[in-house]
Each structure stands twice: as structure tokens, then as C-alpha cells.
Amino acid sequence: MHKDKRLFQLHAAIDTRVHAIRAEREAWLCGKGCDSCCRRLADIPTLTEAEWQLLLQGLNAMTGAQREDIHLKMAALASTQTRPVVCPMLDETTGACPVYAQRPVACRTYGFYVQRELGLYCSDIESQVNEGMLADVVWGNHDAVDRELAALGTARALTQWWFDAIRDGDIAAAV
Predict the structure, then answer these.
(1) Which residues contact 71 (CB under 8 A, 6 or more apart)?
(2) What pLDDT, on the 0 to 100 scale, is given for residue 29?
(3) What contacts 8, CB < 8 A, 6 or more positions away?
(4) CA distance 37 to 47
(5) Structure confidence by residue, pLDDT tens digits, 58-111
(6) Cβ contacts of residue 11 below 8 Å, gap of 6+?
(7) Distance between CA atoms of residues 103 and 113, nearest Å
(8) Residue 74 phi/psi, 5° resolution?
(9) How many CB atoms lie within 10 A of CB 15?
(10) Which residues pair with 47 in a beta bridge?
(11) What is the three-class DSSP state of 120?
């Protein structure tokens, strides 16, 4: 099966789980207006080639000024070891993601999936879990998602994809 098709099938499965959780809890923390995870990434995100190709479509649909802003953030991110990381795609003024429709799987699963060895990632949701408020939630299985992503090829750091795309001319001019 083609990698793009597998990625879109994975997106559909993730969307189904996310919608099921949201349908049972209208006040779910993760949603429009919440950008705390985007401002506190543990590290530079990694993406498979299929995820990068989709993200690249969103990047090339942006204005030159938006890509220039992202380029400056990518350069700063690549030259520092400071953690946590703010997502370079995030519009920090509005808290919005300009490539939301093309966002990577990690962004799609955050706050809705659990990983066996690492648990949840959102401290706000973890505190609700610890208080017993979310005992009946059927979480997505992030380990299964990771297996699906592994089938899509090698993952590389977002900054590496970005600078390779700049070098190769895959990102529209104005950077």
C-alpha cells in the first residue's frame, strides 16, 4: 500500500478515537484555543517522509512572510539545546497552527493517546487522570500508532526536513 494512503488511513483512525473521546466529554481540554502542548514540546518533533510531504503542502500554501518567520524559528531551534521546545509552526500571537490540516501524527494524537511506558503527555490531563476524573476514557494506543508510523519509513527531525527542503528548493521562495 502506498505510504500516503497508509498515512491517511492512520489519520482516519486517529480522528475516530479523538471524536469518540470528545463526544463523551464536551469540555475536553485539548481543542481550539489550547496551545500549551505546542509551547512545551519535549524535543524537536520527528516526522516520517509521508508526514513531511503532507506538511510541506501546508507550508507551501503559506505566505512568504509566514515561511520566513518559521525559517527564523527553525534556525533558532536547530542552534539550541534548550528544552522544552516551542513548535516553530505555532503562531505564538494567536495560538493557532497555520498547518493544522497537515499537522503530523504526534500533534493529532497528543492528549488522546497513551503510550505504555511513557503514559500521557499533557500534565493537565494527567492531573485529571490522577484525580480519577477520566477513569472511563478509552485512550488511543500510541504504541500501535508508532508501529504504523514505522511502516511509513524513517523519521527525521523537523529541522532536518526543513533545511533539506530549503537546500533542495522544495519550499516556495521567500525563505
Answers:
(1) 162, 166, 175
(2) 82
(3) none
(4) 17
(5) 999 999 999 999 999 999 999 988 889 999 999 999 999 999 999 999 999 988
(6) 105, 108
(7) 16
(8) -65, -45
(9) 12
(10) 156
(11) coil
